[in-house]
Design brief:
Helix content is about 40%, strand content about 20%. The protein is rod-shaped and about 105 Å long. InterPro entries: LysR-type_TF_proteobact-type, LysR_HTH_N, LysR_subst-bd, WH-like_DNA-bd_sf, WH_DNA-bd_sf.
Length: about 325
């Protein structure tokens, strides 16, 4: 017994009154190609199979869909109406199938990093990151100091030398350690006294940066040294002062992470070593980082890169300040 009660198994209201789908496929090909023969070739069917499918569709709908003239066929007005609907439905099905076969790629993470750290430490290591984590799309942007996550930034690497936004989650990366650096051949001229002991010469040109104007005073205080004024040169950006040291223009105060590659290659030397200045770098995020998430893997990788060669893995992250 049939019923019109919606939801029951044999309800007429719950059954789609669709034409045969295989016939619709044959019809679409024939209408697009204006030929039953070519439609058959496209679908790997015979001319007769296409003709029978179209005739069955016309009988189902109760109206002719084609005008048959010699070896060609032309759509009737009803055929044009049906073709528009069929093409729209097929396009939607095709788009959905494509999406299911190729799921959307994960959203790109935008990581803001202080410019000098970005250029001298992070970018040189990014090929290794993408090789190890090809599934984590990452976009790097340069930025220093205060920021807001509403500016399209997902993560940021910053030193804790300014107040952070409320509710910012901070994950420690590494402590800052600073020291003077220069070209190897100049170290003996600028950092040795008459007895051969390490001593900063008054004749040593000191390179300053406008963005870290107190770097030399801070290092001298940490070392307990008093140095009379000498030859100095100020650069607009911290990166420029480090490049000036590479070029042999003088001694620059440098964080170890920013010059470690130059030290390992022998391009620069640090005659007095490095001393912690009490600050540190952190990975900042608007929300807590879930374990085993892409962000957690990025955090682990960043900490690994901050370790000196041959160092043991970190047992635990340091707490945020």
């Amino acid at each position: 017994m049939k019923t019109d009660t919606f939801g029951e198994k044999k309800s007429q209201s719950n059954t789609r009154q669709l034409p045969p789908l295989s016939a619709l496929r044959c019809f679409e090909a024939a209408a697009r190609l204006e030929s039953f023969t070519r439609a058959g070739e496209a679908l790997h069917l015979t001319h007769g199979a296409i003709s029978r499918a179209v005739r069955a569709l016309e009988e189902n709908l109760g109206t002719p869909l084609f005008e048959r003239r010699s070896h060609r066929v032309f759509l009737t007005e009803a055929g044009h109406d049906l073709l528009r609907s069929v093409e729209s439905a097929f396009d939607l099905i095709e788009a959905t199938a494509r999406k299911l076969r190729m799921p959307d790629k994960p959203a790109t993470l935008v990581l803001s990093c202080e410019p000098t750290l970005l250029m001298r430490w992070l970018i040189p290591r990014m090929p290794a990151f993408f090789a190890a984590h090809p599934d984590i799309p990452l976009q790097l942007v340069a930025g220093g100091g205060p920021f807001t996550f509403a500016q399209g930034i997902d993560l940021a690497i910053r030193r804790n030398d300014f107040p952070w936004q409320r509710h910012t989650h901070a994950q420690w990366l590494f402590d800052e350690a600073i020291g003077p650096v220069c070209r190897p051949e100049q170290a003996a001229l600028w950092t040795r006294d008459e007895t051969g002991h390490s001593q900063l010469s008054n004749a040593a040109p000191r390179l300053h940066s406008a963005t870290r104007a107190q770097a030399w005073d801070q290092w001298l205080n940490l070392k307990g040294l008093v140095q009379p004024p000498g030859k100095e040169q100020v650069f607009e950006h911290f990166y420029f002062s480090l490049q000036a040291a590479v070029a042999g223009l003088g001694l620059a105060i440098a964080p170890w992470q920013l010059v470690r590659d130059d030290l390992e290659s022998g391009l620069l030397v640090a005659p007095f070593g490095f001393i912690a200045d009490g600050s540190a770098y952190y990975l900042l995020s608007p929300e807590a980082i879930d374990a085993d998430s892409p962000l957690a893997r990025l955090l682990e990788w960043l900490r690994d890169q901050a370790l000196p060669p041959g160092s043991a893995q970190l047992d635990a992250a340091r707490p945020a300040p």
